Amino acid sequence: MGGLPAALDAPGLRLTLTELMALRPPPRSPRQRPASRRPGAIAARVAGQGMDLREIRAFAEGDDLRRVDPSATARTGQLHVRSFHEDRDDSTLLIADFRGPLLWGTQGALRSVRAGRLLARLGWRALARGGSVGLMLLGREAPLVLAPGGGSGQMHSVCTALARGHDLALLAQARAQGAAHPADLAPALLRAARVAPMGARVHLATGIEALTGADAALSRLAQGRRLQIHLLMDRAEADPAPVALAVSDGTHSRFGRLSPVAVQPLLAHLRGLGAHPELVAPDDAG
Predict the structure, then answer these.
(1) Whole-structure pTM value
(2) What positions does the domain DUF58 occupy (predicted)?
(3) Same domain, 134 and 149
(4) Which terminus of the chain, N or C, has fewer Cβ atoms within 10 Å?
(5) Per-residue model confidence (pLDDT) at position 61
(6) How far is residue 171 from each of residues 9, 188, 206, 207, 262, measured CA to CA in Å?
């Protein structure tokens, strides 16, 4: 991308379209899907008006006579009907936190790069299920939103947006004077609640220190959706070196010793909000 300093154009610092597209899993044998089902719709476990057969059972009062199964009725001499699974949306929203607190790392890759790789993998998996995938990018400016869609072309758009959005975040951080306060997370999460339909899977890749002030928004986003929060851990947080290190806020610096971050209280708190948090160690996401 034009304007990106050469020092930032390196593996682990920059997120590239090539590496994200390469994360696509090998194709599986195709599964048959009814021609009338739209991309992103899957059979739920409850009975409804879908196209996948759930069971053939004896007729009960209130059953739709249009569902009568002639073969079972003739074979048993008793009226039988077909019951079908209900179709529901298999929609996935990926939320990439590329704000300042994520743009650092001590080994291998920035936490933001690892977040992008993790979300790309999750997007490819959703696509392999036949689901739809959308994206929200968080940076210094207003969130960028890519509406959910299906197909490999959609994932190409998702990967392109992740790579370009990360470049823009790096540029903004490099040009910032001092340590600018990151944009609030809560407004973006409230917008995500409007983008992700009920029943959707929402994957938020962020850092353990980046959720301040977002409790109410997280709770709302988790209502009726499966909200998974992937907390990117750096080696310096999980297992800091037992020596004094130079620590800087962008303007001032001093020496100090780092202590391991106590994460269990945060995990319990997030579960109490209805979310499903997980720690992502450096080796888990590149």
Answers:
(1) 0.76
(2) 55-195
(3) yes
(4) N
(5) 60
(6) 11, 21, 19, 20, 32
CATH number for the domain that contains residue 132: 3.40.50.410
State how far Cα 8 lies from the chain centre: 25
**Tokens 């996401």, located at residue:** 285
Strands (E), 59-157: 80-89, 91-97, 132-138, 144-149
Q: Is residue 120 part of a domain?
A: yes
Q: Do residues 159 and 189 share a domain?
A: yes
- The H or E element spanning position 18 is helix 17-21
16 plus 146 within the same structural domain: yes
Q: Would 104 be classed as within a structural domain? A: yes
- CA–CA dist 129, 84 (Å, integer): 20
Beta-bridge partner residues of 227: 202
Burial 120-130 (b: 16+ CB within 10 A, else e): bbbbbebbeee
Could you read off the pLDDT of 205-236 as tens digits, one per residue?
A: 999 999 999 999 999 999 999 999 999 998 87
- Is there a single domain that holds both residue 169 and residue 280? yes
Q: Is the pLDDT of residue 41 over 90?
A: no
Same domain, 49 and 151: no
Residue 31 lies in a domain: no
First to last CA, the chain: 22
* Tokens found for residue 246: 């130079």
Contact in structure between 87 and 192 (CB atoms under 8 Å): no
* Same domain for 71 and 99: no
Model confidence over 170-213: pLDDT tens digits?
A: 988 888 755 556 778 999 999 999 999 999 999 999 999 999 99
Q: What pLDDT is recorded for position 63?
A: 67
Query: In this structure, which amino acid lies at residue 16?
Result: T
Domain tally for the chain? 2
